Amino acid sequence: MVGLRWWNHIDEDGKSHWVFESRKASSQENKNISEAEARIFWLGLIACPVLWVIFAFSALFSFRVKWLAVVIMGVVLQGANLYGYIRCKVGSRKNLTSMATSYLGKQFLKQNTGDDQTS
User: Fold this and answer.
1) pLDDT digits 0-9 by tens, 41-95
2) Distance separating alpha carbons of residues 18 and 20, to the nearest angstrom
3) Structural contact between residues 17 and 8, judged by C-beta atoms closer than 8 angstroms
């Protein structure tokens, strides 16, 4: 729908490799994918994990433990799906973990250097 796909590939050695792809944008393909459809796709992709988290808190606070297992699986599966598509969108060459670590490290350094200057 939006030109993104991801899957798991197992090679001859039995090692698992995740493949994240995004289609190259061209004028012909842009006609097939409208901006409204892409927004609906991303809205649904983001809204579903949020809805599962709401269900998780509902099950937790209403003490419905047997439903909590189902809801946790929903959160995990929808979160993995969201992660996969975001990884495709950002690019397969960039590692999201290193990007997050780099960002948090910069924020930590800014906070610590700012605190040292005020003391």
Assistant:
1) 889 989 999 999 999 999 989 988 888 899 999 999 999 888 888 888 787 445 5
2) 7
3) yes
